[in-house]
Every structure is written in structure tokens, then in C-alpha cells.
Design brief:
Elements (H helix, E strand, L loop, with lengths): L17 H18 L4 H7 L34 H15 L4 H4 L1 H9 L3 H9 L6 H11 L2 H5 L16
Helix pairs in contact: 3-7, 5-6
């Protein structure tokens, strides 16, 4: 009669059947996927949705909302997309209760790395609310974010020229 081996961890070889090994590998991959961080779009693609949707459209009422303000043409945009994204990120931190100095510590560090600490401090002092002058000062300060993250390397674009607001 043939002898069957079970994995006990001591042999260094796993002699379990291939189907068991594949199921175990799939379980480990699923656990790793749940534990490790991933992009939201990646996670959404992993979730199966029924063809008719999770909720039937008949449950919803259509409510048109008047849009009194038309969108500006893209050519009129004055703030670079990366600065606009950083602005939302940093100002959200302030709105959630962080102090300006704590929220903007990375751009402040970048400004100090290139000898613009006083200028950055003056920009920080101009940020008093979420109005346009404060937004402009924040965008100008955010030009130093990349400088800080690159370790003080100064790009060919001087600080304050990408804001445009």
C-alpha cells in the first residue's frame, strides 16, 4: 500500500495535492489583498456587481438641478492640476482641525531647504480662512511641496509661477 505524506512543516517540501496547494495559495493571496493597501479604483474593479446594478433605478427620483454657473474653459484654468490636488489635501487637513503649521509642514520644510523660509512664513500668515487671498497664499506655498519631497533639489520652475491665481 502506498504511503501518503502530509505536510508537517519539517520536510521543507510540501507534498499536498496540487488542488490543495492552489486553494491555499488563493486564500493567502486574498488575505494579502485585504490587508495591503490598494488604490480605490483597483478595489472597485475587484467587486462584482449585478448587471442591473446593486439598487434598481426605479427606487430613485430624477431631480434636475439648475446649474447657474457654467464651467470655465480649460484654457482659463490658472492653477496646475497637481497644485489644485495638493490644495484640497492640505486645506482638508486644516478643515479637520490640524493647525496651519502642522498641515503645511512639508512645504515649509521645502521652502527652508531653498532659503525661502521667511517668504513661506509670510505666505502661511496670509492664510486666515478659505477665501481667495488665503487660497492664493496656500497655492504659492504649495509650490515648495515638491522641493521638500525631492530633498531640496530646485526645479526649473521658480516657486510661485505654477499657481497663477
Amino acid at each position: 500500500m502506498p504511503r501518503f505524506y502530509r505536510f508537517d512543516g519539517s520536510t521543507g517540501m510540501d507534498l499536498r495535492p496540487a488542488a490543495v496547494l492552489e486553494a491555499d495559495a488563493a486564500r493567502i493571496d486574498e488575505l494579502r489583498r485585504r490587508r495591503d493597501s490598494m488604490a480605490v479604483a483597483t478595489r472597485i474593479r475587484m467587486v462584482d456587481q449585478p448587471p442591473e446594478g446593486l439598487l434598481p433605478l426605479s427606487l430613485f427620483d430624477r431631480t434636475p438641478l439648475p446649474d447657474r454657473t457654467a464651467l470655465h474653459p480649460r484654457t482659463m484654468e490658472t492653477v496646475a492640476p497637481d497644485i489644485a490636488g495638493l490644495y484640497v489635501d492640505y486645506m482638508t487637513r486644516i478643515a479637520m482641525g490640524a493647525s496651519k503649521r502642522v498641515a503645511f509642514r512639508i512645504p515649509l520644510l521645502g521652502a527652508r531647504l531653498v532659503g525661502q523660509g521667511e517668504y513661506a512664513e509670510s505666505l502661511l500668515s496670509r492664510m486666515v480662512d478659505f477665501a481667495f487671498p488665503s487660497a492664493r497664499a496656500a497655492c504659492l506655498l504649495l509650490d515648495f511641496d515638491n522641493t521638500s519631497r525631492s530633498g531640496g533639489w530646485v526645479s526649473s520652475t521658480p516657486a510661485g509661477t505654477r499657481c497663477g491665481c
